[in-house]
Amino acid sequence: MVNHDVVIYNFRLEIVKAFISEGYQVYISSPYGERIDELVKLGCIYIKTEVNRHGKNMFQELALMKHYRTILKDVRPDVVLTYTIKPNIYGGFVASMLKIPYIANITGLGTAVEEKGLMQRLTVLLYKIAFRKIDTIYFQNRVNQLFFENQNIYPETHKMLPGSGVNLNHFKLQEYPQKESIEFVFISRIMKSKGIEEYLAAAKHIRNKYPQSVFHILGFCEEDYEARLKQLHNEGIVKYHGMQRDIRPFLEKVHCTVHPSFYPEGLSNVLLESAACGRPLITTDRPGCREVVEEGYNGYLVETRNITALIEAIERFIDLSYEKKVKLGENSRKKVESEYDRTIVVNSYLAQISRIGEEV
Fold first, then answer.
1. What is the CATH number of the domain that holds 232?
2. Which segments constitute the Glycosyltransferase subfamily 4-like N-terminal domain (predicted)?
3. What is the spatial distance between Cα 294 and Cα 332, in angstroms, rounded to a whole number?
4. Other C-beta atoms lying within 10 Å of the C-beta of residue 190
5. Which of 111, 206, 277, 345 has the fewest other C-beta atoms within 10 Å?
6. β-bridge pairing 182-187 and 158-160
7. Same structural domain for residues 198 and 323?
8. Residue 172 lies inside a defined structural domain of this protein
């Protein structure tokens, strides 16, 4: 159960393939997207499920939970796997009611949970209800794990994963570009909490001081930025490429990935994929981002929402020699090879499901 087809295809495809190769029948509950057809070709059975990721309409939420109940009663799966907040909570609640083993992956707390207030208290209560009989909770960073522990949403069966991991064969080490221009890239959903404002401000400043610099932007606009990005593109401040199915050709030609996010991440896939391709990283010193960067080893960490700090980090990178830039990139690849190989994630899921099968 997921809230977007990309959640499965881009970050859990290897898990799906491993399940199928082991002889499991895989059902996917998700809103329809272009990746669904490719998953069906692999042998998955698709169940269309509308999920309003940011919606708070009580009737929509109840309808989603009812839909999950219908799915699980019809399919009667041996185990339910969920990702992201609403599938975790509503899917977990229904699985618990129907006494179906259930594994949740905490891909981030989300703004509603991270910020104190009524919504946080309500979400924590829902988690407690949904997770009361859960088999396993996977966490992607220690801060998320501590939050659940402090809120007493913490069964004994919890495990830490290296995020979603990264497919090191798909995201290969790429030759570091040799050219006079210094090129940066922002890859994300285009929304304020992903740091787009800070990136745009830094791009304007750096372009004035270093005319040879280039600032790329990849991603779909989840918030109202489309017109502004197109205008900045036309002015030559940034190069806006929209949503891209394959980010590797862009990583091939850039020198550094900039990810100034203050979104409640689980663990940033953009940073993992960029690092796997051998690119230095500039990101924020917050959970879900800081885990992938060792200061000065493969990139730089900056304070969240601090444009000045971001500009200073970018200038610091620009002033490095070519050889030092290359070394940062090589270190990025070494780090993900040793800590974030996606096979770690796949093997952990296979072991958990095998154990559940033996207990049933």
1. 3.40.50.2000
2. 12-141
3. 9
4. 23
5. 111
6. unpaired
7. yes
8. no
Q: Report the pLDDT value the prediction gives residue 360, as an integer from 0 to 100.
A: 59
Any domain includes 173: no
Number of domains in the chain: 2
Decide if 170 is inside a domain: no
Same domain, yes or no: 152 and 289: no
282 in the same domain as 225: yes
User: Which pLDDT does position 359 carry in this prediction?
Assistant: 72
Q: Kindly give, in sequence order, each residue whose CB lies less than 8 Å from that of residue 62, ignoring residues fewer than 6 positions away.
A: none
Do 232 and 303 lie in a common domain?
yes
Whether residue 175 lies inside any domain: the answer is no
Q: What is the pTM of this model?
A: 0.92
Q: Among candidates 258, 215, 209, 250, which has minimal Cα distance to 233?
A: 215
Kindly list the averaged pLDDT for each block of 10 residues, start to end, along the chain of length 360.
91 95 96 94 96 80 94 96 94 95 92 80 91 93 91 81 95 95 96 97 97 96 93 96 95 98 93 98 96 97 98 98 98 98 96 84
d(CA 52, CA 39): 22
> What domain range is 328 assigned to?
182-339
What is the model's pLDDT at position 155? 66
* Count helices and strands in the chain by DSSP H and E runs: 15, 12
What per-residue confidence (pLDDT) applies to 125?
92
Residue with tokens 């200061």: 295
Rounded to whole angstroms, the Cα distance separating 196 from 201 reads 9
CA dihedral angle for residue 178, residue 330, residue 250, residue 283, rounded to 10 degrees: -120
